[in-house]
């Protein structure tokens, strides 16, 4: 019997890698420059949100008028991407999580497994974040923060793009959404996909569990265990 074709949609931050201070600084500086107000982005605030939504939160906090949002979003996004390019690797505290390289390499060995992104990052930001780890080649397609304001806008886009890119049709039972927040799990449920969550931040564990992922892992170090969850063995 031939094995079913499986599509895996990966989140980036907190799932594949920890972006470190550079990314947070780039975003806070971009918002500060455009709004001319000091901004502090708490660690964990961005988890599960799209970049436009994170920025919009600060616009609301600063009392910006709704009519101004589209222009401000555009200005801040543009500046953020410039600063991210400059600052991303400047602090040396970002890293790819243990086991991710091994997992992706192993998945690439399977002819029936296809990889894509489902991330709230703006596409250019996603590419900047993945580049130092050589991960862009593994994840050539996906849905990004440019594709919708809400994370829940993204799963359909990710699936459609992946099906066009790989010229395949994926059954819901053969789609896996892999992330580190309850929002990722919710996105998977929208596609009736299998959901795998890794708990990187213990304070999110309860929320993740209550979103009822099919599999929950404490880390990504046991490649065999992850593969068997992905393959539904
Ligand atoms: Mg994440």
Give a nutshell description of this structure.
The protein has helices at 21-35, 51-61, 69-87, 100-109, 123-130, 154-166, 182-190, 205-210, 223-231, and strands spanning 6-10, 17-18, 95-96, 113-118, 142-143, 175-179, 194-198, 215-217.
Structure description:
It contains 9 helices and 8 strands. It has about 230 residues and is an alpha/beta fold. The chain has 2 domains: about 5-20 and about 95-230, Rossmann fold (3-Layer(aba) Sandwich); about 20-85. It has a 6-stranded parallel beta sheet with strand order 5-4-1-6-7-8, sandwiched between helices. A two-stranded antiparallel sheet has the order 2-3. About 40% of the residues are buried. The chain binds magnesium ion.
Task: Give the key terms.
single chain, 233 residues, alpha/beta, Rossmann fold, 2 domains, two-stranded antiparallel ribbon, 8 strands, 13% strand, globular, binds magnesium ion
Topology:
Layout: E1 6-10, E2 17-18, H1 21-35, H2 51-61, H3 69-87, E3 95-96, H4 100-109, E4 113-118, H5 123-130, E5 142-143, H6 154-166, E6 175-179, H7 182-190, E7 194-198, H8 205-210, E8 215-217, H9 223-231
Parallel strand pairs: 1-4, 1-6, 4-5, 6-7, 7-8
Antiparallel strand pairs: 2-3
Q: How many H/I helical runs?
A: 9
Ligand kinds: magnesium ion
Contiguous uncertain segments of 5+ residues = none
CATH topology of the largest domain: Rossmann fold
Radius of gyration of CA atoms, rounded to a whole number = 17 Å
At CATH level 2, the architecture of the largest domain is 3-Layer(aba) Sandwich
Main sheet properties: 6 strands, parallel
Shape: globular
**What class would the helix/strand composition place it in?**
alpha/beta
Q: Please give the share of residues in helix.
A: 40-55%
Specify the CATH homologous superfamily of the largest domain: HAD superfamily/HAD-like
Number of strands: 8
Strand order of the largest sheet: 5-4-1-6-7-8
Mean of residue pLDDT values: 95
Total domains: 2
Q: State the distance separating the first and last CA atoms.
A: 15 Å
Work out the strand percent: 5-15%
Order of helices and strands: EEHHHEHEHEHEHEHEH
CATH top level class name of the largest domain:
Alpha Beta
């Amino acid at each position: 019997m031939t094995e079913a074709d499986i599509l895996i949609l990966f989140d980036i931050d907190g799932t594949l890698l920890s972006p470190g201070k550079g990314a947070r600084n780039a975003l806070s500086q971009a918002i500060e420059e455009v709004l001319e107000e000091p901004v502090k982005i708490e660690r964990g605030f961005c988890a599960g949100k799209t970049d436009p939504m994170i920025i919009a939160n600060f616009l609301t906090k600063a009392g910006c008028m709704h009519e101004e949002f589209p222009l401000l979003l555009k200005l801040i996004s543009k500046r953020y991407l410039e600063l991210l390019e400059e600052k991303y690797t400047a602090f040396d505290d970002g890293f790819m999580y243990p086991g991710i390289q091994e997992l992706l390499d192993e998945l690439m060995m399977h002819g029936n497994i296809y990889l894509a992104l489902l991330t709230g990052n703006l596409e250019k930001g996603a590419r900047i974040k993945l580049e130092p780890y050589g991960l862009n080649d593994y994840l050539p397609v996906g849905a990004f923060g440019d594709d919708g304001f809400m994370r829940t806008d993204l799963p359909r886009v990710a699936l459609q793009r992946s099906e066009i890119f790989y010229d395949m049709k994926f059954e819901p039972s053969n789609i896996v959404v892999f992330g580190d927040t309850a929002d990722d799990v919710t996105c998977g449920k929208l596609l009736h996909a299998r959901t795998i969550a890794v708990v990187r931040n213990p304070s999110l564990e309860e929320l993740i569990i209550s979103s009822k992922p099919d599999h929950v892992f404490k880390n990504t170090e046991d490649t065999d265990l992850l593969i068997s969850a992905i393959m539904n063995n």
